[in-house]
Design brief:
Blueprint (H helix, E strand, L loop, with lengths): L1 H19 L5 E2 L2 E5 L7 E4 L2 E3 L7 E3 L4 E2 L3 E8 L4 E6 L2 E3 L8 E7 L1 E9 L5 E6 L5 E5 L4 E8 L3 E8 L4 E6 L2 E3 L5 E10 L4 H5 L2
Parallel strand pairs: 2-10, 11-18
Antiparallel strand pairs: 1-6, 2-5, 3-4, 3-7, 7-9, 8-10, 11-14, 12-13, 12-15, 15-17, 16-18
């Protein structure tokens, strides 16, 4: 609270000093960026746009705005593989000694899910070999969802534990995680054939 009051006081002193000299305080609309690991981000402010690059940690719109002018920094386009949000993006120049908009970005994660056919009894355990995440399923399960995978990372769904008496295979289990959840993996299970000796004893 004391820091915010000090910033407001400094801004007021600056504005009054310039006004006494017949000028008007000017402010750069800019700030900091965290977590921007890919290109594609587009920021806008009152019609002007800029495109920070991957790994940039700060940004600034060209030119400046005068004391009392409103600004509103928003995201026009999200970058690849991450989602960004704006903090302190809208205000009026001069309320603080400087304008510091914060853009926070975080990597996207998505789940892998699909359907199971023919699994009637026992325990089936599926795994994503690329991340080590696994899930045990009881007989009768017809769907599954594996833990989240980082956008842009490879995934490989395989059978970690076969259910007793069944052979299960995976279709569409390999790929690169795109910018949406994977939902088309299919696990097909079929009973193992009984041996001839078993059949003669029945």
């Amino acid at each position: 609270m004391r820091f915010a009051q000090s910033r407001r006081a400094a801004a007021l002193v600056l504005a009054l000093s310039l006004a006494a000299c017949g000028g008007k305080a000017q402010f750069t609309v800019g700030g900091t960026i965290t977590g921007l690991f890919y290109d594609g981000l587009v920021l806008s402010n009152n019609g002007a746009t800029i495109s920070p690059k991957a790994n940039d940690t700060s940004f600034a719109f060209p030119g400046s705005i005068g004391y009392g002018t409103a600004y509103n920094v928003t995201i026009t386009t999200q970058p690849r593989h991450v989602t960004c949000g704006v903090v302190n993006g809208a205000d009026t120049a001069g309320r603080f000694a400087s304008i510091n908009v914060v853009v926070n970005c975080s990597r996207n994660f998505y789940t892998i899910s699909g359907t199971i056919n023919g699994f009637t009894t026992g325990t089936l355990e599926l795994t994503n070999g690329s991340t080590g995440g696994s899930i045990p399923l009881a007989g009768g399960a017809t769907t599954f969802t594996l833990p989240t995978v980082l956008d842009g990372s490879p995934y490989s769904v395989t059978v970690l534990t076969q259910p007793a008496g069944f052979k299960c295979t995976v279709v569409n289990g390999n790929g690169i995680m795109g910018e949406a959840a994977v939902t088309n993996v299919v696990v097909n299970c079929a009973p193992l054939p009984t041996s001839s000796s078993d059949a003669s004893n029945t």
